[in-house]
Amino acid sequence: MGTISHRKFIRWLPDEASEPTSTLVLTSRDNRFVDIRVLLNDDGCMDSRCKGSTSIDCLDWAIGGTVSSTINDSGIRRAKFSHWINSRSKDADGVADEGDMYEQADGTTLEKGSMVNPETGQDTAYEESWLDIEVAVNDDKKSCFVAKLDGKDCRGMVVMLDGLCQGVMRRGDHVAAERWEKKNGAWTRSVQVGQGDLVCESLITDEEQFAVGHKIMSKEGTWQIVEAY
Prior knowledge:
Elements: E1 2-12, E2 21-27, E3 32-39, E4 51-53, E5 59-71, E6 77-86, E7 96-103, E8 109-116, E9 123-135, E10 144-150, E11 154-161, E12 164-171, E13 174-183, E14 186-194, H1 200-205, E15 215-218, E16 221-228
Parallel strand pairs: 4-14
Antiparallel strand pairs: 1-2, 1-9, 2-3, 3-5, 5-6, 6-7, 7-8, 8-9, 10-11, 10-16, 11-12, 12-13, 13-14, 15-16
């Protein structure tokens, strides 16, 4: 079972809650995730620079990695997101963020923790509201794929889950991120920033051909399917 997570707001305490981004996290059954956050304009719409720009000015954050959870004595779940790719850091190894997850009466999850506020550079307490949608395994048709690129100086991860697909890649100072959405039976690319040859389009075009171990060649190197179900 995978999870699609839409962020509803972020609050840097003691400020008021707001949502300055379009934030979507796709998490696979084996707990690999791609988290892409792109800035919204003053009208609350996605900035046009997020749709085909080599610049990453509109990219707030893009992360690829794995998530694990523990339950404390009070029954509260703590999630740890271990980064493997990070648009804000060349060296993601050892980087992680953690938050305590509180289920709310309206079906959302309130995450509480502390991390660096990018606007101030200071470690700050925060709250994030998430709407999580669980995606069940379909025995008749594969609904989730994860592809990884693990090169000498380049890393990439793509997660396709149900009707959504996201990818992030980093080579040195160069970062690329994409988001695809399937609507009315057709896939469209809603986010494309940075420079890099992601394989989202290959996955959504030929998904039924892929199995674990399958390789996809790109200009950046060889991607390998590590999950397919």
